[in-house]
Amino acid sequence: MAAPAGRRVPLALGLTGLAFALCGLVLLLVLPSMVRDQVIKNVRIDPNSIAFSMWKDIPVPFYLSAYLFEVMNPKEIRLGAKPVVNQRGPYVYREYRYKTNITFHDNGTVSFLEYRRFYFRPDLSDGMEEDYVVVPNILVMGAAIMMEKLPHFLKMLISGALAGLGQDAFMNRTVGEIMWGYDDPLIDVLNSFVPGLIPFKGKFGLFLNFNNSNTGLFTVYTGATDINQIHIVDTWNGLKKVNYWRSNECNMINGTSGEMWPPFMTPSSSLEFYSPDACRSMKLVYEQSGVFKGVPTYRFVAPKTLFANGSDYPPNEGFCPCRESGIQNVSTCRMNAPVFISHPHFYNADPVLVEAVDGLHPNKEQHGLFLDVHPVTGIPMNCSIKLQLSLYIKKVSGISQTGQIEPVVLPILWFAERNTREKSPREPDPQTEPPLSSETTPLLQDASKANQNDAAEA
What we know:
single chain; 13-stranded antiparallel β-sheet; alpha+beta; 18 strands
C-alpha cells in the first residue's frame, strides 16, 4: 500500500539529505587527493606546467636596498678611539632575474644559469650613487691583516709604497665606486711585493660582477619522479659539496637554490637553501602562520644559531676560526680577506660586537630576515633577505697606515633583497634599458666562481 502524501515528503527530504551527506563525505575523501594531484601537476619544473614560466623568469619585482656605514671619526680611530658610524641610504636597485642554459636531464633534474641585472632607482633611494662616503680602505686594511706574519722589513717596504700612493686606513669614495668598482693601482703594487695576494686585476668593488652575472650552474630536481625533491639541489657547478669549510656538514650543499621549495609544507618543515654569496647552505625555521594579500602563508626566519660560533653551537665549528657569536668568518671563500657576514647591525649577535661600535641599533623588525611561503605550493609570497658585510681591522706592526687601531669588526654595509607585489612607477624595460656590465669582482663573490662558471658554460 502506498505511503500517504504527507509522509512521502519528509521521506524524500530525508533521502535527499542523506544523498548530500554522502556526496559531502565523498568530496572530503576525494577533494584533497584531487587538489594534491593538481598541485603536483602544476608546480613541477616542466615546460607544460603553470609554474614553469614563473620559475624561468621570475615575474615578481625584486629590489636590492644597500645601506652604507659612514665612518664619522676616521682620524680618532687611527689613534685608538672607538669607531662611530652613521647609516646612509637606502640606495635602491631594481633587480631582474632570468634563467638561461636550461637543460633537462634523464635523471629527473634540470640545469640552469640564473643571471641578475640591476638598475639604480633614485626615486626610491635616499641619496645618489654620486654621494661620497668615508669607509674603511678595504684593500689596505684587508691586506694588512693578510700580511701580518710577513717579515717586518717587507711590511715596512709595503707601507712605504702605500704612503707613496696616498693610501690610508680609510677612504672617501662615492657609493657607486664602493659598490660597483673603482680603479686602484694598489692592486698591482701589492701583487708586486706578494704575488697572488690580491687574486684579480682591474677594478675593485664590493658588488663587482653582480651586474649581468650568474650565480653558478645549478642542477636541481624537477619533481617529475618525486615531488618531495622538487627544487632540491643535486649539484652546484658540478659539486655535491664545497671545500671552503672544516667539516663535511658545513661543506654540504643542501636544500634548494633559494627561489622555491617542495609543496605541502607543515609547521614542522624548514626552509633550507644553498647561497653562493655566503658560500654555504642556510636553514630557516617556522615562526608563525599568516596571510599575505589573502593568501595563507608560513613565515620562516633565521634561528639564532645561524651565525653562532662553534662554542655556542657545535655544528658550526666547521665554519671556524670563529670570533663572537652572530658573525661568520668567510675569509676562506673571499680571497682570505678578514671579512665577516652577519645580520644587519649585528642583530642576534653577541652584544660585545654592538658595544664596540657607536651608531648601531639592532632590532628584529628592521634587521631580521624572513620568508613568507605558500605552504601548499612552496612558492614564496613575500620575502626580505638581509645580510651585513663587515671587515676586521686592527693595528698591524710595520704597516703605519693602521696606526693604533684597536681590534674591531667594523660594519661596511648591509643590504636587503626583497620582493614586492606592489607596482612601482617608471619600471625600466629590461630589453631597452640594459645596465652596463661591471668589470669588477665583488668582495661578496666567490673568488673561484669565474673559473667554475667558464667550465660550466663550456
